[in-house]
Specification:
Layout (H helix, E strand, L loop, with lengths): L1 E4 L3 E11 L3 E4 H8 L5 H8 L3 E4 L6 H16 L6 E5 L11 H7 L7 E4 L5 H15 L5 E8 L17 E12 L6 E8 L7 E2 L22 E2 L1 H23 L8 E4 L4 H11 L6 E2 L2 H4 L6 H7 L1 H6 L5 E8 L3 E8 L6 E3 L32
Parallel strand pairs: 2-16, 5-6, 5-7, 12-13, 12-14
Antiparallel strand pairs: 1-9, 2-8, 3-4, 7-8, 9-15, 10-11, 14-15
Helix pairs in contact: 3-4, 6-7
Amino acid sequence: MTGVRFEETTAVITGIGAGLPEQVLDNAAVIEAGRLRTTDEWIRTRTGIVHRRRVAPGISTGDLAVAAGRAAISSDGGSAPDLLVLATSTPDQPCPATAPYVAHRLGLGTVPAFDVGAVCSGFLYALATATALLHSGLCRAPLVVGADTYSSIVDPTDRDTAALFGDGAGAVLLRPGRIDAPGAVLAAALGADGSGHQLIAVPGGGSRQPMHLPQVDPKATTFRMQGREVYAHAVRRMVASAREALDRAGWPAETVEAFIGHQANQRILDAVAQRLGIGPEHRFGNIRDVGNTAAASIPLVMADPTTQRALTPGRRTLLTAFGGGLTWASVALNWPATVPRTRPPSPEFDLTPLSSTDLLRSHAWTPSASTSSPS
């Protein structure tokens, strides 16, 4: 694991934006659509999720990223970004990267733009990367976006994953500032362990199992996760990276005033906070309302009205995440002094909104009678 502390000057968050689809699905709609052998109570108690957002047909990750990026730029109110980093594991297409087209649609001209593929740790990887690039002098106003449409890769008949994920995007705009400023990024810790690459994966569709060749598994291009193993790794890795980030920032864990973890599972978030000694009154999240939005989850919590009302600028804030790869990351920062903006995504052409009863019809999968029952 690698960590860094930024001295004297650093990147300061001056804008925050969110892009959320308008369609809201409750647990009952997801259960009915996938004919899942589970219950609303089981999903709530095991994950903490009640609702999630879902994109309409034709709305892509790039559309969500554009909405969040525009909102963050509006929140900042200053000059245009001069670099764009997009964290996603559901790009608009395998090639090219989605970030350049997002930058084009935002009217940013020929600024550098690239994707970061660290799955659910992607936003913090991107935030640390943009902060380092700003610190080096390569840019002065990087825009960092986390965006994912997991509805495009999740099998709605898979009881283990169908109810977990929602679609969304969040973004922050950074500018140079002092380390004591509200929004200042103070320290970061990043890590990865490729020996666990199979625990969170979409095995098909890449160069190892190309789409044009017959797939050994007919569902190889859908998302798969080994939940029990992931839980153990997630808690251990997030705690370790959080402690390193706090050590580099010079903050005792008991002084953290805002804890925001990747919104994967409420039990994971509670376990990490408990091990760090951070009380419930300092934990913030929105998993109940939007589910697991992958790379978008942390900036969406930062943009959430409940979080904004509870925190004042300068509060000691700890961000931490774990994702496929395996990857993990933590960032220590001062809570920003900015008012977030939210925009709904829109495609470049009109489409009919997707209803919950059309979920299965928009995928190639068919319900399976062999799905397991709640346990």
